[in-house]
Write a structure and sequence with these properties.
The chain is an alpha+beta fold. Helix content is 51%, strand content 19%. The chain has two domains: 191 residues, no CATH class; 209 residues, no CATH class. The chain contains twelve helices and 14 strands. Strand 13 and strand 14 form a beta hairpin. Helix 2 runs antiparallel to helix 8, helix 2 packs antiparallel against helix 11 and helix 8 packs parallel to helix 11. 38% of the residues are buried.
């Protein structure tokens, strides 16, 4: 039994050596144009496997990155179901600040509200007012800037300072010039620019007086005039928010107890959000608030779209993989058919069929490895840095190229295996033919 195994491995080892010799000679003598074309196809196939799925996933990854940087932080603490604010907010903030992983945090007051523009020059009160609704968010501008990337998302005007008690930032999705959509029920502010005065109504909303002459608030809302200091555009949900100082919002919503609605926590680099969440829950913060890592707080629709795009990328990559395998099969098969007489002579002088099969398999591997190597250089040294510096400007995100090394190597391995099989099958079909028929071309 051992002798048979020894003979088997010896035969294959010798076949591999002879096959390597034959493969090297065939590659050297092959047409440069043909070899280059095959490698080009393999490179394109690899890029299709990695880049197409990477771009599709990157579209949502851009949204996710913006969500974490501008809104949730690493940990997001929000109100419990059926609660209007986080009870014992200051106690939770104290616990969070004392965690060894905490870098900074931002406590936010949130209330529904609406903005009205052009009320001073309005003459026809039968027309609909120039209004838009959204969430009014009271922030400490310094703490928010330390926790999120909000200041960098100001596309017009400037960020808030602690002295801007009568100023606000408006999300781009509340302005018609940034969201030029005309849909039933959608109300957007028109002709509003930085420096303009707007009227903010907290809660209740804006309605017309029955006499048609004035604007009143429904549900006991509070109204105050503010100056637009900046426009926020992040391609996330905060583009539907109105930002102002927390010290200005508290009196309007009667929040004298300093209980907030939302707390975003930024952790130190390398900190584990799950460990921080567990520490907060253990300290009792979970009794009066919902504590989530940024992954858990992601909207469900965003997670579903990520999965769908990843699936579509894999489907499109699989199609290109099949095309590449067929291409290699055809090339190797035609090469073997045209050299059938030469293969017959090799068999006639005693060269094992295994060695000839190995030679063609090695050629296939050479094409695949060369194409993959060129593709990896293009992906990691050109495409990925380029998209990181110049994201694709989509309406809902800044798309990047997601290409992680483990996933890329898995795709490369799949392509290599598919190419190996595609090279082996035609070589096997030709080599198995009768030696004399091959020599005589019959």
């Amino acid at each position: 039994m051992l002798k048979q195994r020894h003979n088997f491995f010896t035969e294959w080892w010798q076949a591999a050596g002879v096959g390597w010799f034959l493969a090297v000679r065939q590659i050297r003598r092959a047409s440069f144009t043909t070899t280059g074309l095959i490698i080009f196809v393999m490179t394109l196939t690899f890029l299709n496997l990695v880049v197409v799925s990477g771009i599709l996933v990157g579209l949502l990854q851009g949204s996710t990155d913006a969500y974490v940087k501008t809104y949730s932080g690493d940990i997001l603490i929000s109100t419990l179901p059926k609660k209007t604010y986080i009870e014992n907010s200051q106690g939770i903030i104290s616990i969070a600040k004392n965690l060894p992983w905490t870098k900074s945090l931002s406590a936010r007051y949130i209330e529904s509200g609406s903005l009205e523009a052009g009320y001073k020059t309005r003459t026809n009160f039968r027309d609909d007012p120039n209004t838009a609704g959204g969430q009014v968010v009271g922030i400490d501008p310094v703490a928010e800037a330390e926790t999120t990337d909000l200041p960098s998302k100001i596309v017009e005007g400037t960020y808030l300072t602690k002295s801007d008690t009568d100023s606000i930032l408006i999300g781009a999705n509340m302005l018609k010039k940034y969201l030029p959509i005309d849909a039933p029920g959608l109300s957007l502010l028109e002709n509003v620019n930085v420096g303009d005065k707007v009227r903010l109504t907290i809660g209740g909303g804006v309605t017309l007086d029955a006499r048609g002459g004035s604007i009143v608030t429904g549900g006991g809302g509070e109204t105050k005039e503010f100056t637009v200091k900046g426009i926020v555009k992040s391609k996330t949900d905060i583009d539907q928010r109105i930002f102002m100082l927390d010290s200005s919002l508290r009196p309007l919503i009667g929040r004298g107890d300093y209980n907030v609605d939302e707390i975003a926590i930024r952790l130190k680099p390398g900190a584990d959000p799950l460990a921080a969440k567990a520490a907060l829950i253990k300290a009792g913060a979970g009794q009066t608030a919902r504590i989530q890592t940024w992954q858990e707080s992601l909207p469900k629709f965003l997670k579903d779209i990520q999965d769908t795009f990843a699936f579509l990328g894999n489907v499109m990559g699989s199609i290109s993989l099949v095309v590449a395998a067929i291409t290699v099969f055809i090339v190797i098969f035609i090469n073997a058919i045209t050299r059938r007489k030469f293969i017959g002579i090799l068999k006639g002088i005693g060269i094992e069929g295994k060695a000839i099969e190995v030679a063609y398999v090695i050629q296939s591997i050479f094409y695949a490895i060369t194409g993959i190597a060129i593709g990896m250089v293009i992906v990691f040294f050109f495409l990925k840095p380029y998209f990181a510096a110049h994201p694709i400007d989509f309406p809902f995100s800044d798309g990047i190229l997601v290409a992680e090394i483990p996933g890329t190597f898995i795709r490369a391995l799949i392509l290599l295996i598919a190419t190996l099989i595609a090279g082996y099958i035609p070589a096997k079909l030709v080599v198995r033919q009768n030696t004399l028929d091959s020599i005589l071309g019959r």
